[in-house]
Amino acid sequence: MSNRKTLAGVSVCAGIGLHSGKRVRMVLKPATPGSGIHFLRTDLSGDNRIPAHFENVTTVRLGTTIANEAGASVATVEHLMSALAGLGVDDAVIEIDGPETPAMDGSAAPFVELIRQAGLKETAAPLRVIRVLKPVSLEMQGRTATFLPSLKPAIDVEISFPHPTVGRQRYAFDISDQIFSDDVASARTFGFRKDVEAMHAAGLALGGSMENAVVIDDSGIANPEGLRFADEFARHKALDALGDLSLAGAPIFGRYFAHQPGHALNVAAVRALMADKTAWKMVAYADAGDTLEAASVEG
Predict the structure, then answer these.
(1) Contact, 134 vs 149, CB < 8 A?
(2) What phi-psi label fits residue 203: left (phi over 0), alpha (psi between -120 and 50 degrees) or beta?
(3) How many CB atoms lie within 10 A of CB 210?
(4) pLDDT value of position 290
(5) Which candidate in 33, 71, 190, 232 could, as Cys together with 125 as Cys, close a disulfide (CB 3.0–4.6 Å)?
(6) If 0-12 CB within 10 Å is exposed, 13-18 middle and 19+ buried, where does residue 18 land?
(7) Measured between alpha carbons, how far is residue 264 from residues 54, 63, 79 in Å?
(8) Helix/strand/coil percent split, the chain, to 5
(9) Per-residue pLDDT reduced to its tens digit, 50-87
(10) What is the pLDDT of residues 233-260, one digit of tens each?
(11) Using CA atoms, how far apart are residues 263 and 64, in angstroms rounded to an integer?
């Protein structure tokens, strides 16, 4: 679709936050065309509107947190943002009565179903996208990320963990609603049982369980149901990357390759791309697949 999309109706869910352990209710609603994705903390008075944008990211430790200038924040937004981006939702209001999105089953699949329940509506507002014009690379403590020019948006991640259950995995996909829904959305977050005590001491993973995460211990996968995909770990890292990259504020037409990605690397890569004004241009979606010279460029 060449125009912006929002939700056609309203959908509601409730659950506990992965890290806070606090119960929260969340409502997805349509938004004015061109307004983007923003959260409303309904449990707070005053300035409770938080635009989902990389400039508002405050914390990237085991999740992505956004906050406004008044201090209102929402944590662990990446799975919901990934679902919105994967299904092509450009404008939406997310009402939430707590500090963190609900973990659900640890993947983006429940959010995909919520979006489908609400339905999608194409608006009259034209969609513009960020087209990558040249490579932009970043290195952080041995982790690397690169944006490359591409005629379609794509994500390619590679991970390596010393635990034999994970090992080295690579997963790449072209971003489309069908591919995302079928092959990426249901990949769950994961963690190692040996790290639980330290995470709890740091106030993290207080709501974590085998109901919302894949738990890895010395014997392998602790979850009785096992994995949903043989490479579920890499697929989830790709899911996270899409959610973090969507904080650019518009779809990125480029290929994102990341080695050992995490939220810190993903968000830093977005910042590096957007800081280099020669590396990207805003173009009409209808022109995004054309040659660079033929593109309709904004400003």
Answers:
(1) yes
(2) left
(3) 14
(4) 53
(5) 33
(6) buried
(7) 11, 9, 15
(8) 25, 35, 40
(9) 999 999 999 998 899 999 999 999 999 999 999 999 99
(10) 999 999 999 999 999 999 999 999 999 9
(11) 6
Q: Is 200 known to be catalytic?
A: no
Q: What contacts 8, CB < 8 A, 6 or more positions away?
A: 30, 118, 119, 120, 121
DSSP string, 127-140: PEEEEE-S-EEEEE
The number of residues in the chain equals: 299
- The alpha carbon dihedral of 150, 229, 167, 196 has a sign of positive
Tell me the C-alpha distance between 131 and 239, whole Å: 20
Active site residue: 38, 79, 236, 263, which one?
A: 263
CA angle, 78 then 108 then 87, to 5°: 90
What is the model's pTM?
0.94
Type of residue found at 134:
K
What is the percent of the chain where pLDDT is above 90? 89
| Helix or strand run (H / E) with residue 18 | none
